[in-house]
Amino acid sequence: MASGTKIEQQAKSATKEKFLPRKLIAPALIFSIALTQVPFLVTIYFSLMEWNLLKPQEKAFAGIDNYIYVFKTGDLLPAIIATVGLTAFSVVCSLLVGLFFAVLLDRKFRGQSIARTLIITPFLIMPAASALIWKFSMFDTNIGIINFVVQKLGFSAIGWSTQYPYISVIILLTWQYAPFMMLILLSGLQSQSREVLEAASVDRAGVLRTFAFITLPHLRQYIEIAILLGTIMLLQAFDPIAIMTKGTGGTKTLAYLLYERAFVGMNVGQAAAYGVVTVILTIIVATISLRSLFKVFISGVSK
Amino acid sequence: MKSTKATLITGATWIIAVTYFFPVAWMFINSFKTENDAASLTPKFIFTPTLEGFSRLADRGMVDYLTNSLMASVISTALVLLLAIPAAYALSVRPIVKVQDALFFFISTRFMPAAASILPLFIIFKNLRVLDNIFALSLVYAAMNLPIAIWMMRSFLSEVPHEVIEASRIDGANFETELWSVVLPIVLPGIAAVALICFIFSWNEYFFSVLLTSANAKTTPPFLASFVDGRGQFLAVLSAASTVAALPVILAGWFAQKQLVRGLAMGAVK
Amino acid sequence: MNNKVKALIAIVVVAIAGVVVVQQQSGGDVTLTLATVNNGQMKDMESLKSEFEADNPGIKVNFQVMEEGDLRSAVTSDVANKAGQYDIVTIGAYEVPQWGANGWLTDLTSDLADDAYDVGDILPPVKDALSVDGMQYAVPFYGESSILMYNKEILDAKGVKLSNNPTWNEVAAAAKKVNSANTAGICLRGKPGWGDLFAPLTTVVQTFGGTWYDMNWDAKVNAPEFVQAVTFYKDLLASAGQKDPVSYSFNECLTALKTGKVAMWYDASVAASMLEADDSPVKGKMGYAHAPVAKTKEAGWLWSWNLAVPANTQNKEAAVKFIKWATSKEYHNLVGTKLGWSLVPPGARTSTYSIPEYKEAAAAYAPITLEVMSAVNPKQPGVNPQPWVGIQYVAIPEFQDVGNQVAQLVADAIAGRITVKEALDKGQVIAQAAGDAQK
Fold first, then answer.
1. What would the mean pLDDT of B16-29 be, rounded to a whole number?
2. C196 and C108: one domain?
3. What's the pLDDT at A11?
4. For residue C31, what is the enclosing H or E element?
């Protein structure tokens, strides 16, 4: 350094500048690869093995047998349908409920922060605990509060998990994730320019019209980020299914199916094959949805 | 007239908020009941409170599990921030070639179902002799949260006005000063929001903890589920355990919600 | 490179290095890690472990209590991969013979041979279910069969009487008679799972003359007897059962019975001790009978939670010492004197049923439990011979998977989304694939 001229230094810093981004991203990249891609390679290897944990003596190379099993049993398509359906309904419901809450809370009123605090809490509770609490103290036909109210109103008790497994799961997931949507949308509402809204009210635009033509377009990006983050979280939803419906009534999602293959079937090979197929499927779907539907996340990058 | 309407809306908001919160409140109330009271046909609001459930938690050593959870959550969140901030910065403020692919890679790893990668991880952990190690578990949590963190952070960092950065460069600030003293203070609420979300996810993580830990490093969620009794009622004690386990995140969430709203607002504004 | 960046990297390195630090155990003492479930008897064992530790200085026992499903996945992954995290595991009667045959468990036959332990005192059907070729791989901590329980007050009010050995037709008629808008006639498990729905349902199938597999490992899931039994179960639930069967297993039925929302219940014999507990609203109002039958003489199931020592533990000697202590006659005495006689683990030792204090404390249900547990035959529970030992399960590794999947199909049938025949035709294909693997 001591002998470096100013020009040399500048050249050096230009090179440094060029490689800096790579240097910055490298630790995260290496870390991610080590902790997610190495296990994934192991998963691919296992998917080519015949290996039931409970039958160690029959462990052997199986070629693509496990993949044949995945497509032959016919569990895959219903699971994809269940996953897409439950995720889509839950995301939409929690988005709508979240929007409703956000609008309610975007006003100044007494105890506003306490009301917001109450609504946000379900998102903070551990999912498995939520599912158990709901199963016993809300949905149960004898001791559940919902059925207590239903019966007080003169109707007969509802067998939630038996009659409405699909709806039960959506109700629970919506309860858990609507607060998260509310947070994102509330931040969107609060970033709205007050002048525009005041101008609208001076113009005597109705509340609904203002909402539809000014607020909603403003919220578009927030809605997109809410949908995207919500989808990522809800795709992995597991507890309501494991605790309430056990995959009956069309609720056997990929996450639950995979769990069953791995920890009920104890079949490492089959579980791995399901895993690999799931990852390929999600990458295809993610490619399409992320690159076309959610331009917002890419657009900022190309500037 | 207008104030009547406002009062009505406020009243409705309160009724809705309280109803929505009710299952949590009920969990809290049930945690002070005996098992028979918790399983009564007519919901019992008046009963003789008992601390039996809580004393059972203490007997089982809940403090150890909470400590493990705290360590795993704090270590993994710190690690995520350390890795995500520079990476997100590189992806947003200083665009690089093929940036979309890098970003996409981070996101797609988050779509993998946990059940698929758990047994391979178990076997890798076993061979590295790090089963039942809280640090190893923290690394897994960090990897789990890293994509979302980078991603949210990247959108926060893109919000930093270009003029600010240009100005600091003209002033001769080198890259590190630029990141530490110019950019980070602006996005601090965003970082707080990301940290909180990572913390919540790590705190509530269940699957990995069941399999990768046993006697020393087990975290709270599997401990909580262990009160599920195959042969006997458990609603009251489970409620007590859930209440205690939820308190730290609820407090963190309550205190940080303003930050959270501000932080998330940064993310989506273009 | 700037100092701050260096500091960042240093912190990352330290965090990763922390991983490499393997926790050291304090020298000298042996700490046994015991994986178990949260059942009442296990909780009692945990509260009494200090007695063992006092008698055996240098041995500490660390209880790892887990939810049942978590226990299965964690312990199976650990033992199958020889990770050696647990010195003592709690496993069901279903796992013991399979794990024993895999060489995963310590053979305890010679360790249990001393007179003081008196291995011959273990209930014969329970012991049969835990042995492979005469070698014993686990000791039963507690055992159960299934019985019919009924609220005498509700039945008397409708003038219904039940014999000590009722048939399913009698029970169904009684259930329909006492069924009302407010009180269901009978509670039967409907929660999908091989250990939930299919525990009672398999016993119904067997007494109706059906079976999962014949002697050639050909699946019989859509055979007429199996279909008839499932249809009977479904119809009984529909006409006189509890609402929301898919949510219901042991605990939910227990609550329903205690709160008077159902009149009868067919489930694990251990339930009787909870219905007769001091804080139970139905204490003293209950009647008990053998599991209902159709074509067989007995139809009760047989289950035990057992303690076993994985073959690769470092602390074999201490572990064996502990499991012998926890299943000994002295332990039963200890539970009786310290915690109360009605809490003595039932269904493991014949001698339990001749302890005067226990006979008195458990007078309502001890005789029938012993009667049923001695009468069931895990070698041939059904009408025809079967190629495995076990009643409400098939002792092959694939069964928990097959049982779960068929249970989900049957639950869909109970909910009316598909017919019983459709469900069992699908189930037959799943079961046959597993059967073919045994041939």
1. 95
2. no
3. 56
4. strand C30-36
Host domain of residue C96: 30-137+303-361
CATH number, position C255 = 3.40.190.10
pLDDT at position C372 is 93
User: Chain B closest CA to A21's CA: distance in Å?
Assistant: 5
pLDDT digits (tens, 9 = 90+) for B91-128: 877 666 566 666 666 666 666 677 778 888 999 999 99
pLDDT at res. C15: 52
Chains in contact with C via at least 3 Cβ–Cβ pairs below 8 Å: A, B
Nearest to C160 by CA among C147, C176, C148, C149: C176
- Domains of chain B are 56-268 (1.10.3720.10)
> Which distant-in-sequence residues (6+ apart) come within 8 Å of C273 by Cβ?
C342, C343, C346, C362, C365
For residue B110, the model assigns a pLDDT of 67
pLDDT in the model for residue A58:
87
Domain A76-251 classification at class level = mainly alpha
Cα–Cα distance measured from residue C241 to residue C234, given in angstroms and rounded to the nearest whole number: 9
Helices (H), chain B: 2-30, 35-38, 52-59, 62-92, 99-109, 114-128, 134-157, 162-170, 175-177, 184-204, 207-212, 220-225, 235-268
Q: Does residue C57 sit within a domain?
A: yes
Assess whether C169 and C317 both reside in one domain. no
Of A156, A246, A267, the CB nearest to C192: A246
Report in angstroms the alpha-carbon separations of C109 from A46, C100, C129, C137: 36, 12, 14, 7
* Residue type for position C347: G
Distance (Å, whole) CA A155 – CA A148: 10
CA distance C88 to A176: 38
CA geometry: angle A143, A149, A155, nearest 5 deg:
105
Q: What is the pLDDT of residues A185-207, one digit of tens each?
A: 988 888 777 777 777 777 777 77
pLDDT digits 0-9 by tens, C281-326:
999 999 999 999 999 999 999 999 999 999 999 999 999 999 999 9
Tokens representing B8 are: 């009505």
Measured between beta carbons, the chain C residues lying within 8 angstroms of B210 are 66, 70, 73-74
> Strand, coil or helix: what is C83?
coil
Q: Quick one: pLDDT at residue A1?
A: 42
Chain A, 140 to 159: residues with Cβ < 8 Å from chain B are 142-143, 145, 148
* pLDDT value at B43 more than 50: yes
Q: Radius of gyration (Cα) for chain A, nearest Å?
A: 25
Does C13 have pLDDT greater than 70? no
pLDDT at residue C12 in the model: 54
C4–chain B Cβ distance below 8 A for any pair: yes
Instruction: Determine, for residues B211 and C73 on separate chains, whether the beta-carbon distance falls below 8 Å.
Output: yes
Closest listed residue to residue C38, CA positions, set B64, A131, B232, B55: B232
